[in-house]
Amino acid sequence: AQSVSQHNHHVILSEAASLELGCNYSYGGTVNLFWYVQYPGQHLQLLLKYFSGDPLVKGIKGFEAEFIKSKFSFNLRKPSVQWSDTAEYFCAVNGHSGSARQLTFGSGTQLTVLP
Amino acid sequence: ETGVTQSPTHLIKTRGQQVTLRCSSQSGHNTVSWYQQALGQGPQFIFQYYREEENGRGNFPPRFSGLQFPNYSSELNVNALELDDSALYLCASSLDSAGVRFFGPGTRLTVL
């Protein structure tokens, strides 16, 4: 079965700072990769996904992520954060076969953006 | 297009009781999955149903069981509740077992 590691539990930034949240996964087969976001008081929603093709994917609200297969990484980036980006961010991986056909989440990163 | 809905929103039970949580899938989705999210942690996969059959299960004991109905709505049943079962239970629907999951708002279960 796969696993996901998010290295930062809590990140605090000022508005306009750049953001990079780390995500590494362990699984030897083909995977789909996701970043989900949970804004205060709201439910989980998709930020972006990678299924195949260009390893640099763009999502909503100016977020992007890069899949680096050799490093089993899928880091999330945003060049300039806003106060409204304050939320919890979850990286997730889904394998394609057998017992890996489940969505496995990391433990999450709480992002606080100071105005 | 109606999103994923869950009921009830909150629930309080005592240890040893049984609980049933319900989920309505997004229109056109035939796969539903359930997750347990403890405070401060990421969602943990419980199980997944595709066209009324379980096609994946996480590391949860058999007292966690489920059903998917012909209209693709779903139930999560938990027997013999324990204090550690207190968590937010999330339901998600999708078009297949590897695609984008659309999540409901969750049911907050408190076991006393």
Percent of residues in helices of chain A comes to under 10%
Q: Overall 3D geometry of chain B?
A: globular
Mean pLDDT of chain A: 93
Strand proportion of chain B: over 45%
> Which spans of chain B have pLDDT < 50 for at least 5 consecutive residues?
none
Question: Order of SSEs of chain A, N→C?
Answer: EEEEEEEEEEEE
Structural class of chain B: mainly beta
Describe it for me?
The complex is a heterodimer of chains A (115) and B (112). By secondary structure, chain A is mainly β. Chain A contains no helices and twelve strands. In chain A, strand 7 (56-58) and strand 8 (64-68) form a beta hairpin. The mean pLDDT of chain A is 93. Chain B has 112 residues and is mainly beta. Chain B contains no helices and eleven strands. Chain B is globular and about 40 Å long. The mean pLDDT of chain B is 94. Chain A binds chain B through residues 4, 6, 32, 34, 36, 43-46, 49, 90, 92, 94-96, 99, 101-108, and chain B through 33, 35, 40-45, 48, 55-56, 58, 90, 92, 97-106.
Topology:
The complex is a heterodimer of chains A (115) and B (112).
Chain A: E1 3-5, E2 10-14, E3 19-21, E4 24-26, E5 31-38, E6 45-50, E7 56-58, E8 64-68, E9 73-78, E10 87-95, E11 103-105, E12 109-114
Chain B: E1 5-7, E2 10-13, E3 19-24, E4 31-37, E5 44-50, E6 53-57, E7 64-68, E8 74-78, E9 87-94, E10 102-103, E11 107-111
In short:
The radius of gyration of chain A is 14 Å and the shape is globular. With 115 residues, chain A is mainly beta. Chain A has strands at residues 3-5, 10-14, 19-21, 24-26, 31-38, 45-50, 56-58, 64-68, 73-78, 87-95, 103-105, 109-114.
